[in-house]
Design goal:
301 residues; alpha/beta; Purple Acid Phosphatase, chain A, domain 2; 6-stranded mixed beta sheet; 26% helix
Length: 301
């Protein structure tokens, strides 16, 4: 009975989108299995939220002003508390008005500050940083490139958005090389980025022009997973030994790579169960695999 309650409460947490679990965070081993919800005692999981585009107004999401607040409420109401929440970029909708950009960032920060989690972490997207080279973003959220340790995992946040072309740049790549040099080759590494580090669909800017240089550095380590946003949909890929996972957007979905004449938001469907929106949950202790998480029921299914 407790398991049934746990499952209902856990699915409530995931009511706005999909879920991902993995024990090794590498995603290289697939086997079918029975999905069971975690218990409150389970050790370590975190949530990835991406592309909320605070300030967006348009037909692709007529409820955009409420979606972020709903996300905060759902997470806070759940008994399952992540160790941290990470936002992987495009925190706000682009504006060329410097004052409005700062206002949107301040409003976004105030809303997500209500999340009842120990730590919030942020990355910038091009909507946040490309216009002014990340100056406004840094004044509200700090350095866009950093690393930290949590649960025996080395986490790295990269900035492939402050440069309008989406490049990492020589300086950041040197920083990455130095950061990795201090790690044992068997250390589990998780990388957060806004854009994909591999050329998913370059004509839609779904790439990092010098991402191959970062992947060469990362591929020297045996257990590396990259989580990114930008493309507003789930996507799973592997380059060498590095596994890549994209998260859905919190505001609107985009077409499959090359699946439409232009990179434009998909129309809002009022009858849809989740509207193509969502987030990703990562847990490091349960032996759930990629195949298992892909078949986890979604809200309304």
């Amino acid at each position: 009975m407790k398991t049934d309650l746990d499952r209902r409460e856990f699915m409530k947490l995931l009511a706005i989108g999909g879920v991902t679990f993995t024990s090794a965070l590498s995603g290289c081993h697939e086997r079918p299995g029975t999905i069971t919800p975690p218990t409150v005692a389970d050790d370590f999981f975190f949530l990835q939220l991406s592309d909320p585009h605070w300030g967006y107004e348009g037909p692709a999401n007529p409820h955009a002003a409420q979606t972020l607040r709903d996300t905060v409420r759902i997470i806070n109401e759940s008994p399952f508390k992540p160790r941290f929440v990470v936002f992987t970029g495009d925190l706000i909708q682009t504006t060329r008005d410097d004052e409005e950009r700062a206002t949107r960032m301040r409003q976004f920060r105030e809303i997500v500050a209500e999340l009842q989690v120990p730590t919030l972490r942020f990355l910038c997207g091009e909507h946040d940083a490309a216009i002014d080279g990340g100056a406004t973003y840094r004044s509200h959220f700090g350095a866009p490139t950093y690393s930290f340790e949590e649960g025996g995992i080395h986490f790295i946040a990269l900035d492939n958005a402050s440069d309008p072309a989406g490049a990492l740049g020589d300086q950041q790549l040197r920083w990455l090389a130095d950061d990795l040099a201090g790690l044992h080759r068997d250390t589990r590494v998780v990388v957060f980025a806004h854009r994909p580090l591999f050329p998913l669909f370059p004509s839609w800017t779904w790439e990092t022009p010098d991402g191959a240089r970062a992947l060469t550095l990362l591929d020297a380590h045996g257990d590396v997973t990259v989580f990114y946003g930008h493309i507003h949909q789930e996507h799973h890929f592997q380059t060498g030994r590095v596994v890549h996972h994209a998260a859905r957007s919190l505001v609107f979905p985009l077409p499959l790579p090359g699946g439409a004449p232009a990179r434009a938001p998909l129309p809002w469907n009022e009858a849809a169960a989740d509207h193509g929106l969502g987030y990703r949950s990562l847990q490091t202790t349960r032996p759930l695999t990629i195949r298992e998480r892909l078949v986890l029921p979604r809200s309304g299914s």
